[in-house]
Amino acid sequence: TGCVTTVCGNPWADTFIDSLSPELRSQIEVQPSNQTFTFGDGTTYTSKRKIKLPCWLGGLRGEFYTDVIDCNIPLLLSRKSLKAIDAVLHFKKEEMTIQGGEPIKLSITKSGHLALPISL
User: How far is 80 from 84, CA to CA, in rounded Å?
Assistant: First the structure.
């Protein structure tokens, strides 16, 4: 929940794109980017591209923009992105609602972070 800009690593982006149908892949938009990201260990990465990807979140069809960096990280949704979809995070229940919809059960990653299922 602390990201300023939505970001993912190349492996995550490639895997997500590979899971899309040819029709959905044709909807992807790519633009150049030079956004920098610094993580907890002090390492800084610079994005070379920003992509628009289609998705389903909590039963709602949508799309999101993400910078892509040369690092093996999952998609990290920014505060701005979560605010735009009216996300409400319930830490105790490990659930999220989007636009007042039904609660979405979150999973816990091996590193202890909350993970939201994004699918198509």
Answer: 6
Phi and psi, residue 15, nearest 5°: -65, -45
Cα radius of gyration rounded to whole Å, the chain: 14
pTM of the complete model: 0.86
Question: Over the range 60-77, which residues count as b (16 or more CB within 10 Å of their CB) and which as e?
Answer: eeeebebbbbebeebbbb
| 109-120 confidence digits (pLDDT tens) | 887 878 888 765
Q: Which of 61, 64, 66 is nearest to 50 (CA)?
A: 66
| C-alpha–C-alpha distance, residues 18 and 20, integer Å | 6
Tokens 């892949």 found at: 25
Of 65, 61, 57, nearest to 103 by C-alpha is 57
What beta strand segments (E) does 3-120 contain? 7-9, 29-32, 36-38, 44-46, 49-57, 60-69, 87-90, 95-98, 104-105, 107-108, 114-115
CB contact at 8 A, 54 and 63: yes
- Residue 119 is classified by DSSP as B
